[in-house]
Structures are given as C-alpha cells and as structure tokens.
Write a structure and sequence with these properties.
It contains six helices and 16 strands. The chain has 272 residues and is an alpha/beta fold. It folds into two domains: 56 residues, Vcp-like ATPase, Chain A, domain 2; 197 residues, Vaccinia Virus protein VP39 (Rossmann fold, 3-Layer(aba) Sandwich), CATH 3.40.50. The chain has an eight-stranded mixed beta sheet, sandwiched between helices. Strands 2-1-6-5 form a four-stranded antiparallel beta sheet, with no helix packed on it. A two-stranded antiparallel ribbon has the order 3-4. The longest helix is centred in the middle third of the chain and has 15 residues. The mean pLDDT is 94. The structure holds S-adenosylmethionine. The site of S-adenosylmethionine (SAM) has 22 residues, from α3 and β8.
C-alpha cells in the first residue's frame, strides 16, 4: 500500500552521482550532504519516490531502502552475505514458504532476515551464534529492520559444532569458518530429502566440507557454484559494462540429506 514518509522511519536519499544516503526522518531536523541541506519536514508526509531539492539546488530522490540496501547499509562486525548471493541461496537451497530452517552462525543477521522473509509466517528459523555480542547486535539489527523480533525466529547462543537440539528441519544454512565441523549437527537436524547449504569463501573450505559430507554419509547431490555480478551503465544512449564488478565473494555449496547412510553422487553435471 502506498503510504507517505513518516516521522522516525529510515529512508534513502539518492544523489546525482547515484550515492545513497541513509537518513532517519525526525521532525524539525535537517540533513547535510556535500550538495546542500535538506529539511526532514520537507520529506515527512511526502510520497515515496519524490524528488526534493537542497537549498543549493541539488536534486535528491527519496525512497525506502530495499531489502538489499537494508542488509548492506547497516553497521556490522562480521561479513554479511552479499545480496547477489542471497537470492541464489534462497532458490538453490529452496527456502520455501512454510519451511523450518536451521542456521549458523547468525553474524549480522543478513541471511537470517532473508530466510525469515522466504519461509513466511507458516515457517520458522532457528539461528545459532556462538558470540553473545554478535547475537545481541544481530537482534538489534533485525528489530531495526522489521520493527520487532518475528515470533517465528529463535536466536540461540551456542556452538553449532557441539551439536543442536533441532530435528526434522527442512533446511540447514551454514555460514561459518569451518562448515565441515557442523556436518554431524546438520545431519542430525535434517529430515530425509532436506538440503544443507554452506557459504565458503575459499575453495579449500569447499573441498573439506564436501569430503566431510562423504565421510559422514547420508548426503547426495553435492553441488557448488559461484556468481559473478557485472553491472551495466545505462545512461542515455551509452550502455556498457561498469568498470567494477562484484566478482568473487564465496562458493555456494549444497547437498541433499538422504534417507539412509549412503552416498549418491551423479556423474553428470546436471542442470541447476
Ligand atoms: C561470516 S559470519 C555470518 C554472517 C551472516 N551469514 C550474515 O549474513 O550476516 C560467521 C558467524 O558465525 C559465527 N560462528 C562461527 N563459528 C560458530 C559456531 N561454531 N557456532 C555458532 N556460530 C559460529 C561467528 O561468530 C560469526 O558471527
């Protein structure tokens, strides 16, 4: 539903160079950027998508932050998963409405938020984080983003390498330094047919994770891919690839939990 900007909400101002400025609107306050000043009162009550002008004549587009902008624009102590990978993880690990998802570690809560969105009100997410200060920061970030902690999200302080209480989970998402150490926990937590995902920045982590899945047995369909995002500059008649790209971030690794303690690795590359 279309609703005007309200006092207290966070918006994004986009300037002529495409830079994004996050601003929390407060009645009576003003925001200063290099191209001038903008009065918050000129934005409160206005419609999303409005173009406003600073006292120096610079034009700024005012919009609400998208999910990707919310994830990347926050202060953070750990490395969140990049937006380019988040969508692929949601589809690759098939995080569907109603799914019950186990995650470790929570970090900034970026992947947690994406999973909460994807499972919807009928699903649930349990997220383990071993560092209390990170768990508290993630909780604050999630409340800031959603307005409250969702009732279907459980944040747990704990070391996933030591094991988890959850069983019959549909999906397990791992983003931590040694995902192979979490394989026994993922195996115990997943229902047959469930999917385990691991985000691995280094190829040595991919190898160790997959070796461990094979040793543990009970997994199949081991797959990995990476995404390179090349933006394009679209300006009038000038259309060309951007100078910079978001290239390597991490390998996205997936496997399915089998019903029995065996291995199933097809020889062909298959289709993803
Ligand atoms: C790279 S960050 C995760 C970032 C997160 N996916 C995001 O999008 O913000 C890795 C996190 O895993 C946590 N961690 C590492 N080992 C863990 C373990 N054994 N159990 C639980 N959490 C762990 C770390 O403290 C850190 O916060």
């Amino acid at each position: 539903m279309s609703r005007p900007f309200a006092d207290g909400e966070v918006i994004v101002l986009v300037d002529k160079a495409g830079r994004r400025h996050r601003v929390r609107l407060r009645a009576g306050e003003r925001h200063s950027i290099h191209s001038g000043l903008i009065q918050h009162d000129d934005l409160i009550g206005r419609s999303e998508g409005v173009v406003v002008t600073t006292q120096m004549g610079a034009r700024l587009l005012a919009v609400r932050p998208t999910f990707a902008e919310q994830i990347t624009g926050r202060r953070r102590q750990t490395q969140p998963i990049y937006p380019k990978d988040l969508g692929a993880i949601m589809v690759g690990a098939d995080i569907y409405p109603g799914a019950h998802v186990l995650e470790a570690g929570t970090g900034t809560g970026g992947l947690t938020l994406a999973a909460v969105r994807a499972v919807g009100p009928d699903g649930s997410v349990v997220s383990y984080e071993m560092r209390e200060e990170f768990l508290e920061a993630a909780k604050r970030g999630i409340v800031e983003t959603l307005g409250a902690l969702p009732t279907n999200l459980t944040l747990k302080l704990g070391d996933v390498y030591e094991g988890v209480e959850e069983r019959e989970m549909d999906r397990v998402l791992l983003d931590l330094a040694e995902p192979w150490q979490a394989v026994p926990a993922a195996k115990a937590a997943l229902r047959p047919g469930g999917i385990v995902f691991a985000h691995c920045p280094n190829v040595s982590q991919v190898q160790r994770f997959f070796d461990c899945l094979r040793e543990e047995r009970g997994f199949g369909m081991l797959e990995a891919f990476e995404l390179l995002q090349r933006g394009w500059t679209v300006r009038g008649r000038s259309m060309r690839p951007s100078h910079r790209m978001v290239a390597h971030t991490g390998f996205l690794c997936f496997a399915r939990r089998l019903a029995e303690d065996e291995l199933f690795e097809p020889e062909g590359e298959g289709f993803r």
